[in-house]
Design brief:
452 residues, alpha/beta, D-Maltodextrin-Binding Protein, domain 2, six-stranded mixed sheet, four-stranded mixed sheet, 12 strands, 13% strand, globular
Length: 452
């Protein structure tokens, strides 16, 4: 439930652009970081962690840089205060900074050999910084303390792993589900979406939920809004890149099927707005106005819809799939810098800030979702009892089929230069999707070869 007004699509694109100011190496994992300072070794096979962080003999100064809840600094200051209660011998020098400014400043500090000990990272930037060998591996700390990673959602944990190694401790996450206008469904006499729905069903009912009220050729009410195109690819088993990110995979049959579904919805059947339509009025504004029946988006919209979508009843459901059910999960973590001067204190901070303590504070203040299962189940859901959306459990269930968005050290450049301009023409009916892909694939392949 992020408090900013960026769309998640813009967030992903901007984040990688911020990290990609210089060319990065391929995302191979660096050599393991040196082991943490002496501490008892965990018993093999044990998965039980203490309920509260056990104070280690750490002291000195800990430098933390974070963009979490930067528009409400009291949130992360509360997390830091709890850490200092547990570790009074550590002085925390914290800088709460805007998302865009953090990555500009962090890159400068790393280049000057004086980065903070801990920094908040979104998952795309984490992969980029691993490629630059700027982050410390966390596995030695996890193994030393026998830290229970099963208390976290597996998809959130894996998001911050590179080459089988853990580089970030998940602090927040979000996923995409289906918001729907119950009044529009009731008016059309259509049952509400449920787990059995797929995109064929959306297309079927979409024709009833799409309305040109004045018969003037201008659609006044759309049935559905297309999610970001990589989600559509995943719903048919496709992807942007091949497995080792050396080739563009948009020409593969599964990817083409997902892309053609998009043009079927918005160009051929016109049950979803085109990109021109969205430019004229955003999808969230259309939903609030009651002129969109179904909108794929995330928990960051809950507060806004609770406050502004008050003229009708609404709820959430699982995101309908194509040949398979899929959605995207996004996330942020805290990571320890490779050049950190106080790694032991940094690790203890991660345990507090990314565990139940930090999760509770952020959840209570509406900052996205906590990857700690207990916090999500006991606080997020209970906090929404008697409020919309009634079916908030869906946000947890969706993690069972959530996949990661595409990532590459040069993703923003590839997306903005070679992919999106051609896709946008196709989604506005200016060219076929096959023609778009025929231009995209060689252009992306050329860029990937240059970056290798």
């Amino acid at each position: 439930m992020a408090r900013n007004t960026l769309t998640r699509r813009d967030f992903v694109r901007w984040s990688v652009m911020a990290a990609g100011a210089t060319a990065l190496a391929a995302c191979s994992a660096p050599a393991p970081t040196e082991a943490p300072s002496a501490a008892p070794t965990a018993a093999p096979g044990s998965t039980t962690a203490p309920a509260k962080p056990t104070p280690a003999p750490v002291k000195g100064t800990l430098r933390v840089m974070t963009f979490f809840a930067d528009n409400d600094p009291t949130v992360e200051k509360g997390v830091i205060a709890e850490f200092q209660k547990a570790f009074p011998d550590v002085k925390v020098d914290a800088e709460i900074i805007s998302f865009g400014d953090l990555f500009t400043k962090l890159k400068t500090l790393i280049g000057g050999g004086n980065p903070p000990d801990v920094a908040s990272l979104n998952f795309e930037n984490l992969h980029a910084y691993v490629a630059e060998k700027s982050l410390a591996e966390l596995d030695p700390f996890i193994q030393r303390d026998n830290y229970d990673m099963t208390q976290l959602f597996e998809a959130s944990v894996n998001m911050h792993r590179v080459g089988g190694r853990q580089y970030g401790m998940p602090a927040t996450f979000s996923d995409v589900v289906l918001y729907y206008n119950k009044n529009l469904f009731d008016k059309a006499g259509i049952p509400y979406p449920d787990k059995t729905w797929n995109l064929d069903k959306v297309l079927e009912v979409g024709k009833q939920l799409t309305v040109d009220q004045n018969k003037d050729g201008i659609i006044d009410q759309f049935a559905y809004v297309l999610p970001w195109f990589p989600i559509c690819l995943a719903q048919y088993g496709g992807d942007v890149f091949n497995a080792d990110k050396t080739k563009c995979a948009l020409g593969e049959p599964a990817a083409l099927e997902g892309l053609n579904m998009m043009t079927t919805f918005c160009v051929k059947e016109k049950i979803a707005p085109t990109r021109v339509d969205i430019a004229n009025q955003g999808d969230a504004d259309r939903f609030i106005a009651g002129t969109i029946a179904m909108l794929p988006t995330g928990p960051w919209m809950i507060n806004k819809f609770q406050a502004e979508a008050t003229s009708f009843d609404w709820d959430v459901a699982d995101l309908p799939g194509g040949k398979k059910q899929a959605t995207h999960t996004y996330g942020n973590s805290y990571a320890i810098l490779a050049q950190a001067k106080n790694k032991d204190a940094a690790w203890e901070f991660l345990k507090v800030a990314c565990g139940e303590v930090g999760g509770h504070i952020r959840q209570a203040n509406g900052y996205e979702l906590s990857p700690v299962k207990k916090v999500m189940e006991n606080e997020f859901l209970k906090g929404l009892e008697g409020k919309k959306p009634k079916s908030a459990q869906v946000f947890l269930d969706a993690m069972n089929y959530a996949v990661l968005p595409p990532y590459h050290a040069h993703w923003s450049e590839i997306h903005d230069t070679a992919i999106w301009p051609e896709l946008e023409l196709a989604l506005n009916g200016k060219q076929t999707m096959e023609d778009a892909v025929a231009k995209i694939v060689p252009a992306v392949d050329k860029m990937l070869a240059q970056f290798s």
